């Protein structure tokens, strides 16, 4: 597509941006953007920060690949390497973007019950764009001046005067006052035969300033992103306003000149490295790589020197908490330029280097790594990063299974229901054939079928065990398997498998006589579960009056991604009471709240609820914390495997659906089972048992056995209302397999934790050895520095400040000696040493 034609196409596309909460149309809009060559990035709702929409498994695989690449490259810190996120997740791949959108909507659904607003951005370089970013009216005027546009002449409208996208501005996070407003983005398409400078040396951005820095607008062309319609923040929305243009020659030339000049400065700066190992490391390591392992975030904007600015964690009046100077910087002609911190608070993990309460202070790359990974120990950081000791490199010390899937969940064997279970009843054999005909796991289809059956039962259908109150048959099932093993497929297959016959609604004690089939809904917040049963009805005596009340008694819940549900359960605030609500729903307790406003009051009684969740081993292990085991959350699930080695090579005959007549009343244990249930309940009530983790996992076993036995009777022998020992034996087999599957997840987690502890231990041993070798190898330098430090302290009267702009470290030692000076000071300030260090103060030890 010609650049000019593409420009018109993009302008039209932006003008048709949908509402941010219209997810179906947003999905089509994203696909059209990608097809137009735009590299799309998801942004957290209401913000300007990139959102990582990768699944946990994808993120783990990406991290592993990044670690392997780092190891091959000889990096000692390969085990700490993370795969690039943020801007690196921008893509033109439509399938990936569809998956990201689905996960985005699901992840933030509980936070935005009225609809998740989708924020989007494009990465300019990957989209073949140059964008002029003006934050303020002054910067807009500077842009007009550069283009010789007289924006104030009445009746004269230059086509380049209107920004492509109007931006909503930014309020001060502390005062609430406008930090900038009246700005916009001007888009330009890059012709196919034009190549702009790229790579770390160019930084992909520059500032074209006027007489003051505040008038400088940013020019973005590589590895930068801009938000686009329909994105919305608290200050307002991003709106299409003007055209997209082809890149003018003068702007292309300015970008090329700036990129070439910066690359030349960077090369000149790097020539100063000489043989210094630490400087050599710093010259080839970007601040983005270092800060990626902190909570600092790139603003996407550059400082006047052309280097990127970053925001520190916490609330700050200005987004520019620091400037990350890189080689080629016009301000700092160094091979290893520093991070200049501007914020006067919340600069962790770098506060250690703030001297004398300074509002602004520099941090070197070595200092930064020492703060992030070594508790500010420069000696340990230096020896780990220096490549002067190749015999200590980790490349030869990789574990034998590094990079292989054997350490991941994909190869972990998952327990299966035994052959004798499936041959115990013709109905079970039917279910197995149906699952195998569709190439699904028989265990998973059975588990989903039990959930679907439980949700279709009338609330009056309970199991009477002779102990305490009759139990509801509300059932939770977790289908466990790695990505792509068919968890969702098995769930949907259960809908094709079961055909329910509801019978005469006038027979029996039905509570939900008119509530035949339950709605199938995703799992949201705790109030959302209760809300699923609620509705608005018209008062029969006054048609103008409407009341909120419980309008249904059956609900079927399903979650494809168990990791999101687990996050909500673990983080109660985020999950809005989803954990307590599900635990209450499993027992049949009253749901909702009666003390809210009229429109929010919910009181749900007499209901049937089924929940089917797709778990990966990692998510299941994450659910089984000590706290959740104490609460009884993981014990309420029946776990079935999404994989099935018994699926035959040739498809069996299609057995067709299974007709299940539904009962109209409770089921009961026979006399033998009632006596056994009483004995077991009496032992528990008397405290005749331990409190081990195994006992915790069995805390709800009697109730699970009763529910599963009753459901199997309804499924396999419709019309029978008495549950016998044979039914319980089948239920016990199902739950034994479930327990083994849960233990597989726990063992997987224990192996991962043990491997991580071993890795950390070996890392600490290597650090200690490397530190000793490095310092011994420079014994003469250390002795010289020791003498200098002691002399400076004595000349100052016995007390000095070490760090900071006026500290001894900066004023008396050159950049190359400072890291070793820190190590020398550490030796002098040991317990019996001649110096004492108290924070930033160093003094002579008093005998």
Automatic annotation (TrEMBL):
Residues in DNA primase/polymerase bifunctional N-terminal domain copies: 30-251
Name of protein: Bifunctional DNA primase/polymerase
Organism: Gordonia amicalis
